[in-house]
Amino acid sequence: MSDATPFVLILYYSRSGATSDMARQIAAGVESVAGIKARLRTVPPVSTTCEAVDPEIPEEGAVYAELEDLRQCSALALGSPTRFGNMAAPLKHFLDTTSSLWMNGALIDKPACAFTSSSSLHGGQESTLLTMLVPLLHHGMVYAGIPYSETKLIDTQTGGTPYGASHVAGPRSDRPVDEHERALCVAQGRRLARLALALNQMST
Ligand SMILES: Cc1cc2nc3c(=O)[nH]c(=O)nc-3n(C[C@H](O)[C@H](O)[C@H](O)COP(=O)(O)O)c2cc1C
Asked: Where does the Flavodoxin-like domain lie (predicted)?
C-alpha cells in the first residue's frame, strides 16, 4: 500500500501488556477492511521526577506517538488500562499536548473509539471509557461505540461494553483476552475503519 493509504491510529498505553493485546486485535479488525491500514503507537510512562527520561524508541512494542500521527490519521482508537476508574496518566499526559491540533480543528469529524483493560469486572471499565470520550468530543471527533448487533455483547461473561471494547485481566493481570472480548475488539476495529472510509468520502 502507498503512503497515501488512510490509516486508523491505534494509540494506547499499556504497562503489563493487556491493553496492547487488545490493540493488536483492534488492528486486525481495521486491516480486515480493504483500503485502510492500522498504525499502532504508544506513549512513554510519566514520572513525578522530571529527571527521569526514557529512550526515544521503546525497547519493545509500538513506537511512541507524535502529534503528526494524530493529525494525519483518518480515525483514532484510544486504549488505556483502567486506573481508578479513569485513563492512565501517560495517555492523558500525551492528550494534554494536543492543543495545537485542537486550535486548528485537525481532528474534527474523524471517528474515534476507546478500549480498556481492568483487573476486575466491576472495577470501572465503563467510567474509564466514558471519561476517555470527553477529550475526543472536545476535539470534535465522532465517537463510535459497539452496537448490540454484535451479539457477543449480550453473551459475554467478561469484558465488552457498548461504550467500547474491554478486557478483564484478573487480579494478577495475566488473564488472556478471551474469545468474546477478542471478537468485540475486532468488530470495533472493523467498524471504525469502515466509518473512517465513509467519513473521508463525505469530506472530499
Ligand atoms: C494505579 C493503578 C490503578 C488501577 N485501578 C484499577 C481500577 O480502578 N479497577 C480495576 O479493575 N483495575 C485497576 N487497575 C488494574 C489495571 O487496570 C489492570 O491490571 C490492567 O489490565 C492493566 O493493563 P495493561 O496490562 O495494559 O497495563 C489499576 C492498576 C494500577 C497500576
From this structure: 8-192
pTM of the model: 0.94
Q: For a substitution probing ligand 1, which of 24, 83, 168, 172 has the most ligand atoms within 8 Å of its CB?
A: 83
Q: What is the pLDDT of residues 65-117, one digit of tens each?
A: 999 999 999 999 999 999 999 999 999 999 999 999 999 999 999 999 999 99
Half-sphere exposure of 114 (CA within 13 A, CB side): 28
The Cα–Cα gap between 146 and 29 comes to: 13
Instruction: List beta partners, residue 165.
Output: 115
Report the separation in Å between the CA atom of 79 and the middle of ligand 1, taken as the mean of its atom positions: 13
Ligand 1 atom 28: residue of nearest CA: 83
The conformational region for residue 190 under phi > 0 = left, psi -120 to 50 = alpha, else beta, is alpha
Specify the ligand 1 atom closest to the Cα of 84: 8
- Report how far residue 87's alpha carbon sits from residue 186's, in angstroms, rounded to the nearest whole number: 21
